[in-house]
Specification:
This protein has 9 helices and 12 strands. With 291 residues, the chain is of the alpha/beta class. It has a single domain, classed as Protocatechuate 4,5-dioxygenase, Chain B. The strands form 2 sheets. Strands 2, 3, 4, 7, 8, 9, 10, 11 and 12 form a 9-stranded mixed beta sheet that branches. It has a 3-stranded mixed beta sheet with strand order 1-5-6, with helices on one face. Helix 6 runs antiparallel to helix 7.
């Protein structure tokens, strides 16, 4: 059996079971629960930084989904921070281990996806050092203990939204009770990221959040799955635009017509109250649900 061991536990989130459970519970307890969708929720988009920075935003999305959804399987679209090829990479069988317990892979759905499109390949080794999906799995094990997962890394290609569409068609064709969760962080601003088009300080960080992030967020809320990859490439306002495009493609096939923004913040606001010096770095985070 393939077992994907955690690689960022102890850095992005707690490595020991008791501490990880305590952190998951604390983040979920602190998350607002005042959103009720008029239509069924079909998925969400979460950030993927360390929990100390973006865990509260991710928890809010997962808590909202868990209040209204009881899926048998969750398809996870992740980013590609280390190049592994042009196709989306599927982890097709086995389990993902987390400090709070294992998440089993839905190998039958994975097999069906591979038969549906040549845009997805079974490449578990692509997932070895990728963190964007890993940081979500403890929330899933805690909130959806009955659910299996299908992890897919999606590069920022022109066909990324087609990956999601193929996933949506397969879920629909076989009548799966499924939920879609994708992930991206937003503008990486500052000297550490070699991205300072507006210089440093408060005004520059405000531009990164209120203008640069918002361009990408607005495309997501408008469900423009074919446009998000180009937008991120041009304006550097998302690190996982391929995963975002796939998420939109999948939920639209399943019937989603709109996105709702639950929260938008930055690492600068979370860690430093938004104070921006000339040398400050900041990363944007958004939590969105689709119905």
């Amino acid at each position: 059996m393939r077992i994907r061991e955690p690689v960022v536990a102890g850095r992005f989130y707690a490595a020991f079971p008791d501490a990880c459970t305590k952190d998951v519970t604390r983040l979920l307890t602190g998350a607002p629960s005042d959103v009720t969708a008029s239509e069924p929720l079909l998925g969400g988009l979460v950030p993927h930084a360390g929990w100390m920075c973006s865990g509260a935003v991710a928890a809010r999305v997962f808590k909202t989904l868990a209040a209204q959804c009881d899926p048998d399987v969750i398809v996870l679209f992740g980013g590609v921070h280390r190049h592994r090829g042009r196709e989306a990479a599927l982890f097709g069988s086995g389990r993902w281990q987390t400090p709070v317990g294992p998440a089993e892979i839905d190998d039958r759905l994975a097999e069906r996806l591979l038969g549906q499109t040549n845009l997805i390949v079974d490449d578990p080794y692509a997932h070895e050092q990728e963190h964007s999906i890993e940081v979500q799995v403890p929330f899933i094990v805690h909130l959806f203990p009955q659910a299996k997962i299908v992890p897919i890394m999606v590069p920022p290609s022109a066909t990324a939204h087609e990956v999601g569409q193929a996933v949506g068609r397969t879920i629909e064709a076989y009548n799966y009770n499924a939920l879609i969760v994708g992930t991206t962080d937003l503008t990486h601003y500052g000297p550490s990221y070699d991205f300072l088009p507006k210089g440093g300080g408060e005004a520059a960080l405000a531009w990164a959040k209120q203008e640069n992030d918002r361009r990408f967020i607005d495309l997501v809320l408008d469900m423009r799955e074919a446009d998000v990859v180009d937008e991120a490439s041009e304006n550097r306002n998302a690190c996982s635009s391929g995963a975002t495009a796939a998420t939109l493609g999948a939920v639209k096939v399943l019937g989603a017509s709109s996105g709702t923004l639950l929260e938008h913040t930055t690492s600068g606001e979370v860690l430093h109250g938004g104070t921006g010096s000339e040398n400050a770095d900041s990363v944007g985070y958004a939590g969105i649900i689709f119905s």
